[in-house]
């Protein structure tokens, strides 16, 4: 169903068939339901990011074309999911698959191929690509989405939250059909297949190097001893959060850790009576905080963290230094970026979808010897064949 531009989307608060109950130990019954149904599997997960320490799936939503919606609570039955994994050997339909696949992999659930409805919308140049926006635009329904930040680790899961979760997969088959036809009409099916396969086979992102640097930069901590304290405090908080299964920011806000480090306290008493710990619940952490601070006071000066840090995984320095460190690269990047932005505008898609900014910077920094060398380098940097085909001439033109 596609509404005219003058039509208002129809609010959908409950999926067809009503609000599903949660499946847990009665998995065999639901497997039989899925087994006698047909077609790809619409799949989604609900996690408790920002509330719990882990990013595990606390609920998995599954629907085939002619099946009912199944809400699976996988907690505690992770070792019983092999029959489900074996059954789910058809295509999976997901929205923003990169967000869900890691937590599904933790459960032993791996797709053979995927249809990512968000990626389809991006390649088609949609301005808004959330599930709510794409469904409203193409199918004419407005999904109730007020539980996106809820605590999905709570048990039992209330009816309103179950309705929200079920709606995430209720219309994915219809959405797939619409988007598939649009991709075909736009002659972007090949682009889409390559992007979906790249998402499916991608490795989980590496942990951020020195994540405490972000708050240090934000509040402008320059003192190397204070940086060491912040590093220790960050690790202390992470260990406590992991042990309690609480999101680190829920335990102690990063800004508080940064301000404690900036003040460089000299005693446990100074920490205990600090206004930063005026909340009674935070004072319990005073001994842990002092232990981290005291250890940082003992670090030799030559071993303190440097004020400026460049990740070892970063193949180029900060862009602001290019003009002095590598003037030809700076000129290449300026011209390359202009050409990529123009090409993206001509294609009606975002420039970061056409070619990731990090790839743009990497190729501009290193340069290339020939058209063949450029294609090989782009491939090594993770660009897909369709991106190389579209971008190579624009990049080569930047060197002229």
Automatic annotation (TrEMBL):
Name of this protein: Ribonuclease D
CDD domains referenced in this protein's UniProt entry, alphabetically: RNaseD_exo
Single annotated GO MF: ribonuclease D activity
Pfam family, one: DNA_pol_A_exo1
Protein EC: 3.1.13.5
Assigned keywords, A-Z: Hydrolase
Record-annotated HRDC domain positions: 223-303
Source superkingdom: Bacteria
Top enzyme class: hydrolase
